[in-house]
Give the backbone structure.
Amino acid sequence: MRSPAARLLCLSAILLFVVIEGAAQQQPPVGTIDARVGLKAGFRDAGEAAKNMEHIASLPKPDGFFDPAAPAGRGSPPESANPQANAGAAPTTPTTPPVPPPFDPVASNRLGYTNSDLAFTGNHVIVGNYHGFNTYDVERPNRPKLLASVVCPGGQGDVSVRGNLLFMSVEQTRGRLDCGTQGVVTPTSAERFRGIRIFDISDVNNPKQLAAIQTCRGSHTHTLVTDLNDKTNLYVYGSGTGAVRSAEELAECSGKDAKDDPNTSLFSIDVIQVPLAAPQNAKIVNRPRIFMDTASGNIAGLWQGGNHGEGTQTSRMTNQCHDITVFPEVGLAAGACSGNGILLDIRDPKNPVRLDQVTDKSFAYWHSATFNNDGTKIIFTDEWGGGGRPRCRSIDPPTWGGDAIFDVIDTKDGKKLQFRGYYKMPAPQTEQENCVAHNGSLIPVPGRDIMVQAWYQGGLSVFDFTDSAKPVEIAYFDRGPIDAKNMHGGGFWSTYWYNGSIYGSELTRGIDVFRLKPSEYLSQNEIDAATLIRNEELNTQEQKKITWPASSAVALAYVDQLTRSKAMQPDRARAVKTALEHADGVRSAQDRGAAAAIDHLNALATQFEKDAGAASGRDASHLKSLAETIKARAARLR
């Protein structure tokens, strides 16, 4: 329990956070204390706070994926704090020194045991790591089981899956073609590997490397891209943020400035073609100049680096993308690219074309992107502080180190990005907690745009951005800092929804699993409707259109939304529920009462169609969707 003095300090922090100018989201009522403030520090025994969700499972990292000599088993700091990945530091030696207290980020980087991104296939979740990857069985999400650990150092270890293929990003200079742990003695492309590995995971307990595509800057992240017109090939967009390799190491590489070398390895991404029948033949087929000034032909045509005026953020020059999210069904991709957010046309995946670009005075480093389900909104994240700094304190602006929400609008000049609002996890964190916006995914609630997002040691936050200008937090989970006195890198790298549960990749501790609980912000029907969406695989950087089945849970989710907005009265909502319960009791069109159930549902649908014509905004959309769902539900009874 907190002492009165501690409570007063926490309250002061809350009040200070609330009155910061420029806040673009809801805040706790003045005078209340957020449960995330003042949590006990600890590695395995930190205090926890949760709202509208429950923590149902937690597994530590397996042996070999943490340094037993490090304090409390702590691993390396977050991604952009990694000097090997971002500055081309010398490779590690075969003998790794222990991490001396207090925490030594350089020594810890050499260990490279940080958990990174997640990919899902069937009942399995694959957790990337700077040291390799781990595969878990999550058939029962509350009882995850470790299946296999693959040691293959090289960082960053981002992972994706397609069928029996696993893709893995490698950027650090210690990476070897053979996945060895001894580091690189002779820095040649015959020994060192930086790029994208491809594994065969048809036996998830015994993955086998099939290919290793060398790239000039390595692969910090990558994105799988489906060509809707070509089922024989898969494409991979590789984003490298590391130093360019020397020509002696890889002949086609050049780290020269754009004005000195038009063939520089900067200012582009890698497009890799993977023949699905022969993935071992994967190769780079294009390095598109997506940052080019089309008027002048200058390949360094976007943000040149620097700040946006007094009191604004300093952003890096745009010569790379940190992450790209694609949405093949709408033909678009969103690139988070250093100093810019960009919108791409990817209808020809081999040759992406830039449609628009934006800057933001509050952004230090454009990190990642997420579309809503119809491709009309994009959330871009800002990794201010590189992931290794405390950037969610009460003194930090709520518009820095968070999300910027843009609408994708149609204009006479094509699709453009229009800024709408900001979102940042609202509870102030301490000086001992690295905290900034990081990876998240959509939660498939019909009729709403809802996202779960990681914030490193800021925990995870679930928020609604259906109104782009007014995002609202609806659930959260958080732990206290790893250490009460010193800042140690930790927290969630990624938190993603998959088949009814939320999975979190925790940098230093392992993997966590969560389940949403109903609240005034989210009903049980809405949770049930989201849980109906079942995926055979999920890579969050390749979004797919979500289509909900014509079920009672989906119809009642719309009813709950209309009731919440007061567009439907409770007695009418009860009538819809009764009609659906009656329909759910009918097994076939020959059952007694089937005809009456069908007629009743169709009559309701007709009325809701009329109501939709008289309504406006989201209410009109929800009424229309409700009518369509009820009609389809009636058709299933015929």
Summary: The chain is about 15% helix and 30% strand. Confidence is low (pLDDT under 50) at residues 1-24, 71-78, 80-111.
